[in-house]
Amino acid sequence: MINIALPKGRLGEKVYNKLKAIGYGCPSIEENSRKLIFENEENGVRYFWAKPSDVAIYVERGAADIGVAGKDILLEYQPDVYELSDLDIGKCRMCVAAKKGFEDNTERALRVATKFPNIARNYYSKLSREIDIIKLNGSIEIAPILNLSDVIVDIVETGTTLLENNLEPIETIVPISARLIANKTGYKFKYDEISKLCQKLSELK
After folding, report:
1. Of the candidates 66, 72, 90, the residue with the CA atom closest to the CA atom of residue 181
2. Which contiguous run of DSSP H or E holds residue 16?
3. Which terminus of the chain is more solvent-facing, meaning fewer CB atoms within 10 Å of its CB: N or C?
4. CA torsion, ordered 120, 123, 129, 131, to nearest 10 deg
5. Model confidence, pTM
């Protein structure tokens, strides 16, 4: 039995549909119920839904053999897992954005508002740029507008929200997409089953 952690929401549903298409369907997951864990012994799978930012923790700690996490989560939290493949869905990019016409004043630390402090820190350390990180959890687009920050580091999908708030992306840090990850011990013990699943997924592309 392969234990699979799926992120709640549209991304998880897309991933489940891919897995169903390659023979890992589980009828009970498609029922409208309050169940948390869904099994299909015939197909050898056990699924559960998790908050997207928690999937990597379930996988790292061995509660799930494999799971699906965004590259942003993997870069920010750096869980001790294997990254098996890029699923080519949930595509977006991690960007630096600022008010239109922004010019960096290198005489002082750059104020960076973000939900991803580690990604921001790593990016700017490579540029040898001193920064002051402002960790926010909500809509960070308002930070530059209210002069709380000079720039933001955030995920950009279409860029519409930025444009509507008179902001624009000025640098792309890294492309983001959903990745299939595995627990290191689980991968060793269930190598054949997990490899077979990965092979079928790659043939589906």
Report:
1. 66
2. helix 10-21
3. C
4. 10
5. 0.91
